[in-house]
């Protein structure tokens, strides 16, 4: 253990300095934005002549401006907007900055009124009207920079996971998959009865859960996750918390609950017990009139918008080999009902006849069949697939009620025959033209990852999530990631 401490202490110290600099960086960005927006508000008030006022803008802002900025920063700080564990994930950061900004605006207005200070109303509206969204954009850009740095190995936090080996592996798999979270698993702590040297996924076991305090210090850990099986009683866990509070380490409780959106989780303390309430899955909401109306209007508008492009593509396909323009393929939709899924033909006419030979050639074992440089793809088909333009005729399927704009990938009937009870949940909602599977990598995803994303969508559907996926689809299509 001494060797572990010696080899990590220098790197850990440099890493910790970078992590501690995140709140200072956010503070500097906020101040720069506030000052910049303040100057814009002064010029805008003078040039646009918003509201008539006897006050001279420059003279009134000279006194009030610095006080407003100081109060604004102080309000964000008091509401926890600069806490170190706030950066990089979740919506809490944006919520705190927004709420603090609204409070600062209210206090500034009330303060000027009570003090009978003649602050320009035009300046006030411009400063906060432009400042609040600018602060949120600044935090968004900082988050993107932090996440990119974490993906490349910087700004990462060393993590110990305490619990049974199966629970450790479950948490470690999520942290390894989501590299943008910035967690680096350095070891596991298992119960005393477990004498294994590593978990099934290869996480080294550094010691027992009862030695958490000593091992956190020796491993130079920034975070310790307490997963299932980590403690035997609440009193033992409380003692561990008391001991860990002497160290600069973040304690995280990781219950055996995964792939559930935050909107479905509510923590309600009852008699000292932090009970986690999980709302039922929302897949039934995805079949209601609101989503169907959105699909009808959206598909009709998109068909009218893309009509010239659809005609151009049809001509290109027909001219290439004189074959049919559309490809009809039987797919399985909501509740197992089969339908004819429409796509622009991107393969040679006898593509289905060649499929078995190709599957045997590459050793295909099941799931979704995709391969790089498929010899059956035609010349027009390559660029159609690259930008997912071959799927535009599915807008007709959306109009007919067989598909949705957003949803799980429409499976083939022979794929559905292999589904277990868990995977069959994908059929609770209409399949979609796009979905989490597409904006997360498309054909680069494994079959297991595709199923996991589809099930997450089914269980955690919301209209806001649909809108977010549609927005992310544009960048995914333009980037052509996973398209072949």
Tell me how many strands there are.
Answer: 11
Radius of gyration: 28 Å
**Which blocks of ≥5 consecutive residues have pLDDT under 50?**
1-14
Give the quaternary arrangement of the chains.
single chain
Q: If you average the pLDDT, what whole number results?
A: 82
Given the helix and strand composition, which structural class is it?
alpha/beta
Envelope shape: globular
Number of domains: 3
Domain Bacterial sugar transferase: 291-478
Subcellular location: Membrane
Family: Belongs to the bacterial sugar transferase family.
Protein name: Exopolysaccharide biosynthesis polyprenyl glycosylphosphotransferase
Descriptive key words:
15 helices, transmembrane, 484 residues, 3 domains, two-stranded antiparallel ribbon, Bact_transf, transmembrane helix, alpha/beta
